Amino acid sequence: MSRTIMAFDFGTKSIGSAIGQEITGTASPLRAFKASDGIPNWDDIEKLIKEWQPNLIVVGLPTDLRGKDLETITPRARKFANRLHGRFGLPVELHDERLSTTEARSELFEMGGYKALSKGNVDCQSAVVILESWFEAQWG
Prior knowledge:
By secondary structure, the protein is α/β, with parallel strands linked by helices. It has helices at 42-52, 73-88, 100-112, 119-139; strands spanning 4-9, 14-21, 26-36, 39-40, 56-61, 92-96.
């Protein structure tokens, strides 16, 4: 059975989201949520989860290029993942997101030039990159 997987690209000001199907290994951008110091409007997140009913949530884990935790953002991404699990009772996995923003920007630029590079688009495309990279890791 193919699972529906939702991904989040955590940021302190904006949190991007994407949805994908395990069977195809592809993901699509959903929307970016404004966050106040890393805290989203949980009602908005809940609406999205109710609408898509994912079987699993993947949260991008920001690390440095060597895979080490970043002092301020890494623990907050972990806390966000824990809160998702606690609030919605869904399994949540963390996935290394090194370079996802860079990759997202280059993909968006190829699709639509500078106009495509709005913050919300970049955050959602980062969530797509995180999810597709998570799919690749499952099949690796």
